[in-house]
Amino acid sequence: MHPRFITSAAVALLCIATHAQDPNFQIYLCFGQSNMEGNATIEAQDRQNVPERFKMMAAVNMNSMGRTKGKWYTATPPLCRENTGLTPVDYFGRTMCEQLPENISVGVINVALGGCSIKMFDEDEIDAYLPTCADWLKGYAAQYNNHPYNELIKLAKLAQKVGVIKGILLHQGCTDNGQSWWPAEVKKLYDRMLADLNLSAEEVPLLVGELVGQAEGGACYWHNTACIAKMPSLIKQCYVISSAGCPQKGDGLHFTAEGYRTIGRRYATAMLDFLEKNDLNSEFSATGLTPSATEINVTPGSSTEITIFSTDDEGKSHNVTRRCTYTADDPTLVSVNGVQLQTAATTGTTTLHVSFADKDGKIVTADIAVNISYFPLAEGAINPSIQGSGTFNARSKQLQTGADGFAGWVYNKGIDISAYNYLVVKFRIGSTCQPVIRIYDSTNYNANHYEYEMKTSNTAVIDLKALAQTDDAPDLTQVKMIGISSNGSRAIYLSDVFLSMDGETPASGITMIDNRQMTIDHVYNLQGARLFTPQKGLNIINGRKVLVK
Fold first, then answer.
1. Model pTM greater than 0.70?
2. From CA 461, how far away is CA 42, in angstroms rounded?
3. pLDDT digits (tens, 9 = 90+) for 351-369
């Protein structure tokens, strides 16, 4: 729970029966297509321990569950319609209730139609669009009186009588995959919702979830970069919710139940961040500053969320992440954008200095060590579910892939390992789970790649120079994924993974530069002979290994 939200230890339940608007009843409007509707089988854990403070308004009659349209119920799934599945909204609401104090309740209204275009929600488009739809989709639309947007607005206005709309959640795009007009259409709908419900753009953000990603085998991953990524440039208060690492069912379109749980929690994290950022009552006298982590281990070109808390003179913690100032010893390596720490597409180590000024102007500070390396054995840095659903324990370095799964490191911007001679992978003990080392120049698991079977050995030494000469070898100057696949029957205990020049010890950092841009004092070859000018390939320049191209 976020301590700064706590105002009472008592549970203040909703005043729904009296129709008195309760500012502590937060309402969220949710719309989209099949992933928002919910496509995964609801499991026993999803029906258990649903907080009473988590409410859903039935958007249609759900007779088998005794739910009537327009009435509030405890948010036990399904939340969309009868026979729909688990949705990101389930764990969005659960997480919100876990993090908010007991006097705040969360209500959701979910209007979603599997297979629909965003045009299904556009009142200017639906009359022309609906007749083109398949009969089954027309059947979904009929449950919303053939006007899903109008129904959502009617329900939202009913909800406003008892609570306050705080955010809008969208998950849609497979049907409109990569369409250039999609971002403008979403902005049009968002603006219309604000106008129709008399909401402020400064106070009600739009949260847009990514489709199944490329690394997870998504069939519509292009929509994430071509369309969804553009939304924050069109809407000031817009959060893009990452789907990275969320496993899919195998159809390339829909997440598994665990995938929905993960992305649902991410929706909540973004909304909580927005609430923190916009809390007008968070002015206080600070006594300290505490990062969520004092050391961060990440891969080149990646991003990770950070959270900074400040303690007031009453001992309460406040999330001040967006209100801090960040300065890195080496600003070329890291930067902070909102709550995202972003790294350069290279390796290195730096210290990020964080400072916060309280209401009296007093400055409190903290430091975060940032280590950027190719193979960090840290949770969040290694993805255990690139293919299948796996786990990784950073303390024990235990890696468990799913059945025929793949786990490892993803480099969206690509890394150049062509200057090294070897890739070395070491296990604490050999494994019988048929581990295979894979190297990709794509983030598509099914794309061309290199494989090295470890069998029961505890060490793999891959000759990168020889690999580069083979037919169909991946481009070692643009590596996008390196990892381990297995049949999932046993756990793998990692010991070390590193690039090497001799096949035995980790190589020191290699800098890649253009020799026309260098200031050179001393240059040697790898045998120690002094050179007059750098030669193509590896040199020792000013005491550093440098690859000259």
1. no
2. 44
3. 999 999 998 999 999 999 9
